Amino acid sequence: MKLSILDQSPISSKQTAQDALYESVKLAQLGDELGYTRYWIAEHHDLKGLACSAPEVMLSLIGSKTKRIRIGSGAVLLPHYKPFKIAEVFNMLATLYPNRIDLGLGRAPGGSAEATNALSNNFLQKVYQFPELIDELLHFFNRDFPDDHDFSRVTASPFPDVTPVPWILGTSRKSAILAAEKGLPYAFGQFMSEVDGKVIINEYKNMFKPSKQLKNPQTLLTITVVCAETTEKAEEIALSNLIWTIQKDKGEGDFVPSTEEAKNYKLTNIEKKKLEERKGQMIIGNPQEIRQSLMDLQEKFDVDEIMIVTITHDPEDRLNSYKLMADVLLK
Fold first, then answer.
1. How far apart are CA 318 and CA 137, in angstroms?
2. Among 300, 303, 322, 301, CA closest to 311
3. Total domains present in the chain
4. How far apart, in whole angstroms, are the C-alpha atoms of residue 233 and residue 33?
5. Over residues 278-296, mean pLDDT
6. Which residue, 81, 114, 180, 319, has fewest beta-carbon neighbours within 10 Å?
7. Model-level pTM?
8. pLDDT tens-digit profile of 150-165?
9. CA 82, CA 183: separation in Å to the nearest integer?
10. Helix axis angle, 287-301 to 197-207, nearest 10°
11. Three-state SS for 208?
């Protein structure tokens, strides 16, 4: 089984943003050592409790601290940017770290309406133009603009020997169809979707059109997992993240709460129901339980790879969760 890591750089109540970012480096290094296939880091803007607003900056640092693991964005929010700039940035990363760079692409704003307006103009218009923005980006990577195109003589320098691998990330049928039409690999974010991704992933495979980037469909499923030595301990650790999601719904949750803070947080009956629903979307347990659950998921969704996001209050619990999973799935 191929396992990978998605990191949102969460900030716990005992951390600064700097602490959280350096913990991200440690996580990538651990994934490199344990045999995880890839490490992706997310892009968020002015969102409480999340430290990474610029994946490309973190990837430059992480690339220098790791040796083997593929590294990438999960995702760069393309409607905020000009494709040429993204091509330059990721070509530079691919020049520094050959054959290791992924470029996950998303169309979400990654923050509030105010943050979106501060970051870019005409965001909604650019969301509608997302397919065209991808085409332009791919032309820069392939260096195949038509001769009469305005950018036919423009190169996204430095141009690497092995170009970055673009992925489409999404949680909907629309994103799957787009990935299939463009002939790009597709990552389905089950961890942030309430729909069953199996049908969506199957539709991507059925509609896939081979391209310069990819001859056959390639799929990845992202799921939230918390693993510990015992099921009881895993559930206790997972409570911090679950309570944090409830807090964020209410405009609270500046940081991931400690286990004690999470246990003492007062929930309404509606919030208790919501918490149980979200718990049901996660995989929580001891190593053998996690192993079986992930094997079942891979069989159900028929995906090439599973990417895991784990948020805990204590960074050591997060590292340990990935270690325990590697012990039973990557040895």
1. 35
2. 322
3. 1
4. 25
5. 97
6. 114
7. 0.97
8. 999 999 999 999 999 9
9. 21
10. 40
11. coil
Query: What are the backbone dihedrals phi and psi of residue 172, each rounded to the nearest 5 degrees, phi first?
Result: -145, 165
Q: Which domain holds residue 210?
A: 3-223+284-329
Q: Is residue 276 part of a domain?
A: no
Closest CA to 189 of 180, 207, 176: 176
In a domain, 183, yes or no: yes
Question: What is the tens place of the pLDDT at every residue in 237-263?
Answer: 999 999 999 999 999 989 999 999 999
Residue 277 lies in a domain: no
Q: Is residue 241 part of a domain?
A: no
Q: What are phi and psi of 101, to 5 degrees?
A: -105, 125
Q: Which of 184, 87, 216, 105 is nearest to 145 (CA)?
A: 87
- CATH number of the domain within which 31 lies: 3.20.20.30
Query: What is the 8-class DSSP label of residue 308?
Result: E
3-class secondary structure, 252: coil
For the stretch 48-61, pLDDT in tens is: 999 999 999 999 99
Q: Is the peptide bond before 262 cis (omega within 30 degrees of 0)?
A: no
Cα of 189 vs its chain's centroid, Å: 8
Find the angle CA(155)-CA(161)-CA(166) to the nearest 5 degrees: 75
